[in-house]
Write a structure and sequence with these properties.
Radius of gyration: 26 Å
Shape: globular
Strand content: under 5%
Keywords: Membrane, Metal-binding, Sodium, Transmembrane, Transmembrane helix, Transport
GO molecular function, one term: gamma-aminobutyric acid:sodium:chloride symporter activity
Subcellular location: Membrane
Low-confidence stretches: 270-275, 277-316
Mean pLDDT: 77
Membrane topology: Multi-pass membrane protein
GO cellular component, one term: plasma membrane
Number of helices: 13
Helix content: over 70%
């Protein structure tokens, strides 16, 4: 139950921090508006730079301002650093799991991690130049908002409706040692897909071309070529879903059997069995389909484990 407790604490702390940060920002903005004699909307423009206006002003009014300023900017560095852990690890884990025989040998994984980090570093340099805020706005508007909802919708569909929500529920029980709240099944199958798709549709309906409200300059409208680059980044993130579907159809041909095959989990491993099946000694072969996938990997760790077990039984 420690897992559930930690998740609840994390969710409450995350939401509470957002509310608390909002109180601080608007309190300071109200103070600045009162001192300057202007409306609060004219004090500072919204966006990622708002925190660099409100919080430094707040700490400058506190006793021991240099110490608080150091702690504030150190906090920003740590927030950005641990956010990168999630993004980088997601890419690395997916690629390594896809080609384990290639990347799980020697120091290949470490070399691959270094290459990914170096590429991200050079991409990030474009956002700290004189025009970096324009690049950041382009990335954030097209790659960091709407398209995430689109991908999250298909992730929910793949887990809950194709892999099977009950199988996934049993997998979590096997890993955690207890059954989580059944509410999560409803969330995976119904609530999350509906919310993701509704918000995505509303964002598409209310779409407007990107502009940037600069603090001391007129409103900047992004040119057509920049908007095209933004849509290209969004399409590059989402196009892999239909491309993989078309590729699987190309492998097996378009037919009802192919559709059934593509929406049925194939080749379950022993670690994907339900806990009650493991207790009963059920083999994973029970859950395998009659038509195995044509691209099964040979010489896997499971096969080696089975062969060693067979050899030990023969010796006994």
């Amino acid at each position: 139950m420690l897992f559930s407790r930690d998740c609840i604490i994390f969710a409450c702390a995350n939401s509470g921090t957002s509310f608390f940060a909002g109180f601080i920002i608007f309190t300071i903005l109200g103070h600045m508006a009162e001192v300057q004699g202007v409306d609060i909307k004219d004090v500072a423009a919204g966006g990622p730079g708002l925190a660099f206006i409100a919080y430094p002003k707040a700490v400058s009014l506190m006793p021991g301002a240099p110490i608080w300023a150091i702690l504030f900017f150190l906090m920003l560095i740590l927030l950005g650093l641990d956010s990168q852990f999630v993004g980088v690890e997601g890419v690395i884990s997916a690629v390594v799991d896809q080609w384990p025989n290639l990347l799980r040998r020697g120091y290949r994984k470490e070399i691959f991690i270094g290459i990914v980090c170096i590429l991200n570093f050079f991409i990030g340099l474009s956002m700290v130049s004189r025009g970096g805020m324009y690049v950041f706005q382009l990335f954030d508007y097209y790659s960091g908002s709407k398209i995430i909802l689109f991908i999250a919708f298909f992730e929910c569909i793949a887990i809950a409706w194709i892999y099977g929500v009950r199988r996934f529920y049993d997998n979590l029980e096997m890993m955690l040692g207890f059954r989580i709240n059944p509410y999560m099944m409803v969330s995976w199958t119904v609530l999350s897909p509906i919310f993701c798709m509704c918000v995505f549709i509303m964002s598409v309906v209310n779409y407007s071309e990107l502009d940037y409200k600069r603090p001391t300059k007129p409103l900047y409208k992004f040119p057509t070529w920049a908007v095209g680059i933004g849509w290209g980044m969004a399409a590059f993130a989402a196009i892999w879903i239909p491309l993989m579907i078309l590729y699987r159809f190309y492998e097996r041909g378009i037919s009802r059997e192919t559709i059934t095959y593509l929406i049925t989990p194939q080749g379950l491993k022993d670690h994907q069995l339900r806990p009650q099946d493991k207790k009963e000694g059920t083999s994973a072969d029970k859950y395998r389909t009659s038509n195995p996938p044509p691209y099964q990997e040979k010489g896997t760790a499971n096969e080696g484990f089975q062969s060693n077990s067979t050899l030990d039984n023969t010796k006994l």
